[in-house]
Structure of RpiR family transcriptional regulator:
Amino acid sequence: MSQHIRNLCSPPASFEELKSAIACRHVTFPLRVENVAKRVLAKPELMAFGSATSIADDCGVSVSTVMRFVAHIGFHEIAQARAIFRNELRRRLAVLLPESGTKNESDG
């Protein structure tokens, strides 16, 4: 049973757009590349801050498989892909730690 592999024509603008493209099957992956996709979507900090080598080690694949994932989602370089993962982590942090517009507790 052969799976039809599809790449994104243009890179996603956000983490949510990437997740949506995968969920809608606008992009499909070979098995090992899919393993990378699942892992970095579950742990975006891997892609946001890890090297290709550290991501590959964490996913149990080769560096070239990580780079194929990057290419499948429409990017030419891993640094370009990192941006959407870093932005997602910033978004999550902002939800957890919203900037307080209230006065400081020590102000009485």
About this structure: DSSP finds six helices and no strands in the chain.
